[in-house]
Amino acid sequence: MRERRTARIVTGRVCALMLALALALSSCGVLSGLFEEREDPRDRAASLMEHFEDRYFLSALDDKRLAAVCDIYEAAMAFEKSCTLERLSSEELSEVLTLMAAECPELFQLDYTGSFTGLTDRSGRFVSLDLVYLMDEDKYRERRRDCEEVLAGFVRDTAGLDAEGRERFVFDAVAASCRYDLSSANAGTAWGALVDHRAKCDGVSAAFKWAMEALDIPCVTLTADVVGGVVGHAWNAVELDGDWYRVDLTQSTRIDEFENAGLTDVIYFAFNISDDFVTEPYEVLDAFASVRPLPECERMDRSYYALHGLYIENDARRDAIASRELFALPTSGGTFTLQFSTPESARALPSALTPLVSAAYPHASWTCQTLPYNICVVTVNP
């Protein structure tokens, strides 16, 4: 009996000590922090970001990196000078920022270009991140409203069109209005492409992704280093009826060298093409593939030229298509554009055109300009 009574006394003392400790911790706010149930990162991300589930890479992140995305996103929207992180390695933090730059076009107030700084623990893991902004909060709110007005216009003007029609409308609108510009302070932002109409590849691809989200078309932005070079690049991929297609709208924006050559119409260099059609040696950043496999763009059937019967896969069809386009020109002359599957076929077009033009316009002068992506622009002046 004495042993059992002693056990009860000891147990009672332990419970009393635990209760006293709990009350002490609670009074200083420590206990609530220890036992507070953290919000699920996916629920938190969905509450912070529109179209979160449609963000191809962010929606596939593990909880740790997604929690960091939410911490940075929330702090940036409040224009805080820094945000707390839960012990991220420099590699993890670099991946998070790379994905946010690609998948959050609305977060254009943040400057991603510099080296990131913040507090680290003894193991070198980041426990906070310093945030650098391209503009103040008032300017951001104003510019975001400007962007959203443009996006609302896209939604309104494409009502009733299928996905491909909506995509083409945005492509045409941005290509016709935006000038390729490396010098503008906001060239890397969606606002630069949509409102200021001066942007470079990351700004153009951000604008296109934001517009596709507004139009309910699955879209990703990819960024890459040029193998052996010092300048990177950014482009998009869209999903249409279950297949992915590569879109590089930057190539079709207003570029001085093309306008100086008299090419003022929109040229569809890389509208819904396959990855294999791209010859530049781009190497997509590891941050993307570390999350999930990259979308595979394997088809050319939705490219602008394929849809309009202007894509020439073999020379056997070349003369028939070129003759058709020549005879379709008005008597005052005009221009038509063809795309070839190989650069060799594109370079061979001028020689093949000589007898065809002579047959259609015996006394005409004409030119054939060969452009990137195996594009040939034929202009006839009777």
Can you give a write-up of this model?
- This protein is of the alpha+beta class.
- Among the domains are: 161-306, C8orf32 fold (Roll), CATH 3.10.620; 309-381, Translation Initiation Factor IF3 (2-Layer Sandwich).
- 45% of the residues lie in helices and 17% in strands.
- It contains 14 helices and 13 strands.
- It has helices spanning 2-27, 30-35, 41-48, 63-77, 90-103, 137-157, 163-177, 190-196, 201-214, 256-260, 286-289, 304-307, 315-328, 343-360; strands at residues 82-88, 126-130, 179-180, 198-199, 219-226, 233-240, 243-247, 271-273, 282-284, 311-312, 334-340, 365-371, 375-381.
- The strands form four sheets. It has a five-stranded antiparallel β-sheet with strand order 8-7-6-5-9. A four-stranded mixed β-sheet has the order 10-11-13-12. The protein has a two-stranded antiparallel sheet with strand order 1-2.
- Helix 8 links the parallel strand 3 and strand 4.
- Helix 7 (163-177) packs antiparallel against helix 9.
- The longest helix has 26 residues, at 2-27.
- The chain is elongated.
- Residues 1-36 have low confidence and may be disordered.
Can you lay out the helices and strands and say which pair or pack?
Layout: H1 2-27, H2 30-35, H3 41-48, H4 63-77, E1 82-88, H5 90-103, E2 126-130, H6 137-157, H7 163-177, E3 179-180, H8 190-196, E4 198-199, H9 201-214, E5 219-226, E6 233-240, E7 243-247, H10 256-260, E8 271-273, E9 282-284, H11 286-289, H12 304-307, E10 311-312, H13 315-328, E11 334-340, H14 343-360, E12 365-371, E13 375-381
Parallel strand pairs: 3-4, 10-11
Antiparallel strand pairs: 1-2, 5-6, 5-9, 6-7, 7-8, 11-13, 12-13
